[in-house]
Amino acid sequence: MTTHPAGQLAPDENLIRFDDRLLPGIEAGRYLITVEQRLPSAHLPEDGLGTVEQIVDVRAPQFRLDPSWVHAVYPAPHSQGPFHDLLPHITLDTAALPWQRRPFTDQVPGRDKAPWLALLLFGEGELPGDPNALGTTDSVTVRTLLDGDTAVQGPALDRDSADPALLDTPCQVIDVPKELLEQLLPKAHDLGLLAHARTGGRDAAPAEGPDTGAATYAVVTTTRFPTEAPGAKAARYAAHLVSLEGHQEPTAQADSRPVRLVSLHSWTFTSCPRAGESFRLLAERFAQGNGEHGAAPLRPPAAGTGLPPHLGTLLDQGLVPMTHITDSGERALAWYNGPFLPRVAPALPRPADGHFPDADSLLLHEPRTGTFAAGYACAWNTGRALALADPGFATTLVRLRHQGRLRRATVRQYATYQRQLYGGDLPTGPAAGGSPRELFEELLRGGTLDALATALGAPEDESRVPATAPVAHRRDAPRDPSAPREPSPDAREAAQWLNRLRTLSGVPFDCLVPDQRMLPPESLRLFHVDRGWLDALLDGARSLDRHGDADAATDAELDGLLDADGPVPAAGLLLRSALVPGWPSLIFEAAAGTTPVEVIRSEALGADVLLMLFDRMPDRLTLSEPPQGLHFGVDSTRNPTVTPRTLTPGRTGMPLEGRAVTASITTTAAGARVLDAGRLAALLARELAPEIAPRATLTPAEFAVQLVRAPQRLTLSFEGTR
Measured between alpha carbons, how far is 199 from 403 in angstroms, rounded to an integer? Predict the structure, then answer.
């Protein structure tokens, strides 16, 4: 296995568009609409039509924010890592939300372009109501907030402008000491630089649902960096998206009371400069020569040296020794293998009808140790247990089998009647008073027999058909129940469930990795998928109400649907690492030679475990940070610099190598490190003067482009995996 060094992704690999703002057609608030009509002719009465007035309320979120509107936050909630050179931010699905209202009550220059939302970061011991930075807030009703509290400075908002239905609903607030707020809250003229609209890209931590990457979002960034002091312990922070509507700038207030802010969304994270590790450090652990951390085949660890050769061989093949309880209750040793093996498993011999009827037929004898290999039997029992646990699938499968048996019985009766009709010797004379069979055959004399034969179609055994018997079908003839037909809805539903099971969806993790030592912390393991194990799993699930030959047609129908339902997993990887929670949208690119490998399933199975299934074994794997415009920061907070990026169309975002701008980061009396966004924007504008002239500063979108951190990439090559 060879390793290519981690590098940076080119900014144009994923097209992302930044806009300064997305202004709504009309801001939220109360409006008076006056309608007047003036008649042009002097001969018409002047007071014919009076003035009409109508009050209209334009509603927008004000005191509460629907959690589903939060698309992503960074750092991820409750995450831990080295965030000291990154600016936390929040992404909102409603792209115009930050500009639907206005901040502050006094005349602030440029406030019509500034957002009414700000993201504030508080450390431990800073908020009196949340000393442990757990994101704790106080709950008050909207009425109480608007009425005010003599102990704090609340927002100066008109109660009549609020929705009456919301007055008695709760909202979350935090009381911030005025001196602290003055240190953390950006100046009014800098607020506009901290919010922008973004189209495209992928988010690091989507809150809910899939990330399509094509929608437009609003991004609000804070100016405070988490701690970076060497040797300092991990520091927890609480991020709050607060409303500035109805407030004054703290610097313009003589009042020393705490300021009550509405918290629309909050989350916590921990910055660990000492213990935390970056994407590059975590990813490079999987390189060759890093012991148990390096990428390797998934196999049980050897308990020690001196094992007999045949036992070592079984371990190398992926079998794990486990306790086996027989049907009689005796305890014995057995070997277990899950679906993930470090080798290509040989084909599993199958019964004549193609399906295993029970688990006992899958117990394989291991002659060298005199024990059983119970992996396939466990797979069969697991599939049956999962099918029984899903009443919807169990009902559908039983109904499908009953329908199949009914069709089979109908076909058999149909064939029997055809044989009787064509193969019997019809009498030539009247059969008055004869048996029912003779009476019926008498009715079939003449043209009646030919018409009925045409309607029924050819018999199963055409060699017994008389030469004069017609074999053509009439257009209006009844359908032959034995003819091919379209799969029923029940068959399609059952096949879809089985296909999900074939990707091991719902299979307990202990069945996949029976020994936790096979997947140690901070490790990447590759494996081949045992097709026989998957077949045994599906046979167990399909065993409900199965009766051999009677259900052969139903089994064949399900087999056909499964064969047409996409590729079967043939290989995959398991990743156990802090990369999983820290980078939820981690990008994997797998290839076999020059052919991309199809990802059949990619899912986090726990807090730090990721499973990926491929249609073939890759020989090259690339891990990349999500290339999105959501990570903002500086190159280093000890010597804070920002590399300018060109704004030339067609090359926007490309770093200007060899040029660096020192970022102005001040340490407040509370120990907070705060970025002077306005000063940094002016310094960057000087470096980019030929591109933005005659402007002397950057727009919010241009400022966001300058602060984007380039994602990292690591490529691993595997030799001999195929």
Answer: 51
In eight-state DSSP terms, residue 127 is B
Helix axes 375-389, 531-541, angle to 10 degrees: 40
Q: Which amino acid is at 388?
A: L
Distance of alpha carbon 442 from alpha carbon 439, whole angstroms? 5
The yes-or-no verdict on residue 589 having pLDDT over 70 is yes
Token code pair at residue 120: 């504030």
What are the tens digits of pLDDT across the range 397-430?
A: 999 989 888 888 887 777 776 666 655 544 445 5
Rounded-to-integer distance, Cα 678 and Cα 223, Å: 11
Residue written as tokens 């099971």? 501
Query: Does position 463 have pLDDT exceeding 70, yes or no?
Result: no
Bridge partners of residue 174, in order along the sequence: 261
Nearest to 191 by CA among 296, 104, 75: 104
3-state secondary structure at position 163: coil
User: Rounded to 5 degrees, what are φ and ψ at 482?
Assistant: -90, -5
Q: Is the pLDDT of residue 39 over 90?
A: no
Region of residue 193 (left: phi > 0; alpha: psi -120 to 50; beta: else): alpha
* Residue indicated by tokens 């390189």: 287
Contacts of 129 (CB under 8 A, 6+ apart): 136, 137, 138, 174, 175
3-state secondary structure of 267: strand
Structure tokens at 524: 């990447």
Give the DSSP H/E element, type plus range, for residue 71: strand 70-74
What would the two tokens of residue 475 be?
């257009």
* Tokens matching residue 685: 């504008």
pLDDT of residue 424: 53
Give the number of other Cβ atoms within 10 Å of residue 469's Cβ: 16
Contact between 14 and 701 under an 8 Å Cβ cutoff? The reply is: no
Looking at this protein, which amino acid is placed at residue 477?
A
Assess whether pLDDT exceeds 50 at residue 32: yes
**Of 586 and 473, more confident:** 586
Question: Residues 34, 40, 45, 48: what is their CA dihedral angle, to the nearest 10 degrees?
Answer: -30
Instruction: Convert 210-264 into a string of H (helix), E (strand) and C (coil).
Output: CCCCCCEEEEEECCEECCCCCCCCCEEEEEEEEECCCCCCHHHCCCCCCEEEEEE
